[in-house]
Amino acid sequence: MVKKKSKSRSTNRVVIVIVIAVCIVAVAAVIAAAFAGIEPFSSFKDRLLTGATNSNSTESKPPEPISEPVATIVRLYACESCGRVLMVGLSPTPSTKADVPYKVDMFQKGVLLQTGSITWSQVELDFNRAKVVNFDLTDEEWNAYEGHDVYDIFSVTIHE
Q1: Where does the pLDDT of residue 12 fall: very low under 50, low under 70, confident under 90, or very high at 90 and above?
Q2: Which position among 2, 56, 60, 125 has the lowest Cβ density within 10 Å, counted as fewest Cβ atoms?
Q3: 84 closest CA partner among 122, 141, 38, 129
């Protein structure tokens, strides 16, 4: 009986050593993958090193805002008669420049989905004319958003 106990203990120790070795190899492989740029390990490593809370490679952070916004959102809605698109109504601000093409980025809960563009002529700026940028919606998105407030789902940035 004494022999069985010591054999059982030595077997348990061997199993524990093997499990620890496998864990060390797995952690080393994940760390190597993170520094080799393999996703999702790389973005996780970047978040840990920079202290960022939401930095996925498929996401694109909105650009730093210009001192004063180029335009303000006056309306954001899904429009069926316009071809099942998400329409973003934009009104120029005093910092908007004539004949400058501005990029309009549409984000869904922080994830960049589409980019459009908008330009105002001097006459349009003189009359403070609001303009619309359309973003395509899939049938599934259209069915989900039609008739609902989408301000909490989508955000838009306007920049040069």
Answers
A1: confident
A2: 2
A3: 141
Note the pTM of the prediction, 2 decimals: 0.55
- Provide the residue ranges of all domains of the chain, joining segments of one domain with +: 2-50, 71-159
Alpha helices in the chain (DSSP H): 2-36, 41-50, 122-126, 139-145
Residues 6 or more apart in contact with residue 61 via CB below 8 angstroms: 55
Token pair belonging to 143: 């069915």
The CA radius of gyration of the chain, in Å to the nearest whole number, is 27
CB atoms within 10 A of CB 125: 16
Question: How is domain 71-159 classified at the architecture level of CATH?
Answer: Sandwich (2.60)
The shares of helix, strand and coil residues in the chain, as percent rounded to the nearest 5, are 35, 30, 35
Distance CA 90, CA 88 (A): 6
Q: Is the Cβ–Cβ distance between 159 and 66 less than 8 Å?
A: yes
Q: 139-158, pLDDT tens digit by residue?
A: 888 888 877 778 888 888 89
